[in-house]
Each structure stands twice: as C-alpha cells, then as structure tokens.
Input
Amino acid sequence: MKNKKGLRKIRGIMLVVGIIMSAINVCTIALWIVKGMWVPFAVGFPLVILCGVLITRMYYKNTMYICAECNATFKPTFAQFTFSAHTPKTRKLKCKKCGHTGYCVETYAQG
Ligand SMILES: [Zn+2]
Output
C-alpha cells in the first residue's frame, strides 16, 4: 500500500513537472518564431534540461525493480535505468541476482 502511494506521488510530480517543462518550451519557442525573441528560449531551454535531469535522478532514487524470473528486488545502474526500454510500469533490465533480462516491475524505494 505504502509502495503504491509513494510511486503515485513520484509519478504525479513527474507529470506536473513534465507539463510545466513542455509549456516553457512551447512558449519560448513560440516567442522566438513569432516575435523573434530568442532570449527566453536561450534562458528557458537549459532550465528545462536541468529540470529533466533533476527529475530523472529523483525518479531513479525512488524506484527499484522486481525481477519477473526470481522475484528479487534490485536497483539498476543509472545508465541502465536511463537507456533501457520501458513501459509506464515496467522496464527491460538485467536482473542482478539471476541474470535474467526482461521486463521488471517498478516498485517504490525509500530515497
Ligand atoms: Zn532475477
């Protein structure tokens, strides 16, 4: 129960931040195209990237994965986490315990 709540909170934060980031991007690009003002984009874009990095790190810190094969809970490396194929609730990872590669179910980890 607590796990689900934690995950829902993280996903909620990610969704909100994602929407704000997209809004900043769209607005500053629109200003650039329509008014020729590139400064808001030059300022906003690095901010959006920074937010993206921070939110990804937070997400990584607060999630662990359950192996579909042996049920072990493990944390992938940040590189594995970032570049692996994923669905909203699973991620294709190699299990640290049994070596099985497959879609592992995401679970909440106390950051
Ligand atoms: Zn396993």
The pocket of zinc ion is lined by residues 67, 69-70, 72, 95, 97-98, 100 (CB under 6 Å). Residues 64-111 form one domain.
